[in-house]
Specification:
By secondary structure, this protein is α/β, with parallel strands linked by helices. It has eleven helices and twelve strands. The structure holds iron/sulfur cluster. Iron/sulfur cluster binds at residues 255-256, 295, 297-298, 301, 303-305, 308, 313, 326-328. Belongs to the ABC transporter superfamily.
């Protein structure tokens, strides 16, 4: 459930989204298979909320974020942003929608052009999507720098002159330049020192409150997701296996994979640490080019049953707003 401060208007609707990448082999580059990075995910994101998308590395969460923003041509499914279907919109026509949806990338170092000044990087989207005068653009860039806590005197400096945290602030300022409604934050703090991770997360929260932003917050860090997300979706091998409010997911996880993930979160209190029941998953995550038949978690699930090996579990609502895909509940 959303808290009282959040809207009940759906801003982002994702339905049966698939993103498969072809595998080619041989001298004729024949298509021999496909990597099912995202294999039919569905969820809504409400205006003003943060939906956390969690899972181990390689589960498809980053690909899902990029596919939702149509940085790829998706294989199948529907993505609506503010009521507009963009799933099948040709790339050139997406340009009009770009200001509405933006992305903050994991590695600020790699996502900023080292040959451009900070002012040029932050102002770049304005060149393409606005008809502001040069002076107006300059003023907008400086005010964006203020909003993200960057000293405006450094507008003419280059990315390498900033720390990792400051570079991520530059990336956030650039994402904000066109007044977006929806931002995909793809592991935005994973490349930063622990000491500055909280500062960047607090900035994202402050900006959300100030501008009514809606976030898809992709992370493998469950403690951070617990801090920032209103609801949390758990992904495993290209599929969403459970989705619930933050409180419900962390206090009463239903899917065996979610239970295992949460049991692995380190407990800072050594006294409590001794009492934590860890669920150790056996084996590796199967390849997304050859996922298991039936439930895709059946090769590692501690509660696997015969039906799991042949039939894919349906996604069911086990309580209002709490969905899971597992035969234990179907
Ligand atoms: Fe485990 Fe079966 Fe549920 Fe899959 S469907 S998570 S294998 S119990």
């Amino acid at each position: 459930m959303l808290d009282d401060t959040k809207s009940n208007k759906v801003l982002v609707e994702v339905k049966d989204l698939k993103m498969h990448f072809p595998i080619h082999a041989g001298i004729f580059k024949k298509r021999v298979g496909e990597v099912k990075a995202v294999d039919g995910i569905s969820f809504d994101i409400y205006e003003g909320e943060t939906l956390g998308l969690v899972g181990e590395s390689g589960c498809g969460k980053s690909t899902a974020g990029r596919a939702i923003l149509r940085l790829y041509d998706i294989t199948e499914g529907s993505v609506k942003i503010d009521g507009v279907e963009i799933g099948d919109t040709p790339q050139p026509n997406l340009r009009k929608m770009r200001p509405t949806m933006q992305m903050v990338f994991q590695d600020p170092q790699a996502s900023l052009n080292p040959r451009m000044s900070v002012a040029a990087i932050i102002g770049e989207p304005l060149n393409e999507h606005s008809d502001m005068s040069k002076a107006e653009k300059r003023e907008k860039v400086l005010s964006l720098m203020d909003q993200v806590g960057l000293n405006r005197d450094f507008a003419n400096r280059y990315p390498h002159e900033f720390s990792g945290g400051q570079r991520q602030r530059i990336g956030i300022a650039r994402a904000l330049a066109l007044n977006p409604k929806f931002i995909v934050c793809d592991e935005p703090i994973a490349a930063l020192d622990v000491s500055i991770q909280a500062q960047v997360v607090n900035l994202l929260e402050d900006l959300q409150e100030e501008f009514g932003l809606t976030y898809l917050f992709i992370s493998h860090d469950l403690s951070m997701v617990r801090h920032i997300a209103d609801r949390v979706a758990v992904m495993y091998l290209g599929r969403v296996v459970e989705l619930a409010s933050r409180e419900t997911l962390f206090s009463d996880p239903k899917h065996p994979y979610t239970q295992a993930l949460l049991s692995a979160v380190p407990e800072p209190d050594p006294w409590l640490e001794e009492k934590v029941d860890r669920i150790l998953l056996e084996g590796d995550v199967p390849s997304p080019s050859n996922p298991p038949k039936g439930c895709n978690f059946c090769t590692r699930c501690p509660q696997v049953m015969e039906i799991c090996k042949t039939e894919e579990p349906p996604t069911v609502e086990i309580a209002p707003g709490h969905i899971a895909a597992c035969h234990l509940y179907s």
